[in-house]
Amino acid sequence: MIVCFGELLIRLSAPGRGLLLQQPSLDVHVGGAEANVAIGLARLGHATRMISAVPDNALGAGAVAALRASGVESAVITLPGRMGLYFLSPGAGLRAAEIIYDRAGSSFALAPASAFDWPRLLAGATRLHLSGITPALGPQSADLALAAAQAATALGIAVSFDGNYRSHLWQAWASDPPAILSRLVAHADILFGNHQDIGLILGRDFAGDDRQPAAAQAAFAAFPRLRLVAATARTVHAADSHALSARIDARDGHGVADAITLASIVDRIGAGDAFAAGVLHGLLQGDLAQADLAHAARTGLALAGLKHYLPGDASLFGQRDIDAFLAGQHDVRR
Questions:
Q1: Which residues pair with 5 in a beta bridge?
Q2: In the prediction, which pLDDT does 333 show?
Q3: Mean pLDDT across 74-91
Q4: Cβ–Cβ < 8 Å for 220, 198
Q5: Residue 269 phi, psi (nearest 5)
Q6: Distance in angstroms (rounded) separating the CA atoms of residues 135 and 145
Q7: CA distance 164 to 218
Q8: pTM
Q9: Does residue 192 have a pLDDT over 80?
Q10: HSE-up of 191 (CA within 13 Å, CB side)?
């Protein structure tokens, strides 16, 4: 059982490739980084549980229903507050996408530590997955994320952590991202983060062609529990034309997935979460200690690549889709 903890969100997007409010309607999707990972893994056949808090209204109920529809076990509680939202203007060509957060005062952001009974919520878990978005929401949420990580460590449950740095959220309060993120990464055995994420945490700059392996080795030196560092490298040619590669570093080896070309992108939001789900899926196909890192990198990259061609936040693909992608089977499957 993989348990994910974070805020459930509702995304409101401009239809097509338009701007917000250009049309008198908005497309609605349920998302949130950690929920995206839970859904992606559930669609690949893994038992997953989502821990969060939502308001006791139609928006909260709809978000929970979306989780259950994808096979995710809900450990979502209802609390006073409102539903966290974000608004998306999709990019097109040379016009970049833009996100506006509307999360202040949400049920999750206001959730007290006493609301979560960690031994009960983590019962049966083999892994807890967290991201840097939760601590970015404010001091109370930062304490919640740390409490979750500490509880998992105390119970002997592995922790994976995705940096997911969101500058707009951190800048909204008197935060200290390096100090807070360091305390969380200290509990992780798997870190999803590139050289910039690691550089932020360690207060260092990594440059040159070897910046990702150098950053990974610096992270291993700083965090004794850490076993793997997984990251993608993205080259953006235009909003809907990218190149994406992946790499997983261990203390004594690495695995690489060569770059793929992503043309005519439909929706890149959630691609990093799909990568995390794909890597975890690839690692779970064998013993983590003997894992084929190149296989896990290719699996993560395949799921991330597929996500670019699906509207919404979460990957809804299965193993058959990954196999077809890796085999280059892009024609109609009949």
A1: 51
A2: 72
A3: 95
A4: no
A5: -60, 130
A6: 6
A7: 19
A8: 0.94
A9: yes
A10: 35
Query: What φ, ψ does residue 90 adopt, rounded to 5°?
Result: -65, 145
Tell me how far apart the alpha carbons of residues 116 and 108 are, in angstroms, rounded to a whole number: 11
How far is Cα 312 from Cα 320, in angstroms, rounded to an integer?
Answer: 20
273 classed as catalytic: yes
Q: Is the pLDDT of residue 289 over 80?
A: no
Residue burial 4-39, b: 16+ Cβ < 10 Å; e: rest: bbbbbbbbbbbeebeeeeeeeeeeebbbbbbbbbbb
- Residue 291: the pLDDT is 66
* Strand 84-89 with 9-13, pairing: parallel
Residue indicated by tokens 């979306």: 66
Q: 134: closest CA among 87, 99, 82, 169?
A: 169
Which string of DSSP letters, residue by residue, matches 64-85? HHHHHHTTPEEEEEE-SSB-EE
Q: How distant, in Å, are the alpha carbons of 9, 21, 90, 264, 297 from that of 18? A: 21, 8, 7, 16, 34
| CA nearest neighbour of 227 among 185, 259, 260 | 185
CA distance 263 to 90: 15
- What Å distances lie between residue 226 and 151, 230, 231, CA to CA? 17, 11, 14
How far lies 8's CA from each of 78, 105, 109, 312, in Å? 12, 14, 11, 14
pLDDT at residue 208 in the model: 84
Tokens of 69: 């529809």
For 109-135, the DSSP string reads TT--GGG--HHHHTTT-SEEEEETHHH
Cβ contacts of 52 within 8 Å, gap of 6 or more: 5, 6, 7, 8, 32, 34, 35, 75, 76, 77, 108
DSSP, res 332 = P
For residues 295 and 281, give the distance between their C-alpha atoms in angstroms, rounded to a whole number. 10
Catalytic option among 162, 273, 313, 321:
273
- Start-to-end Cα distance in the chain: 34
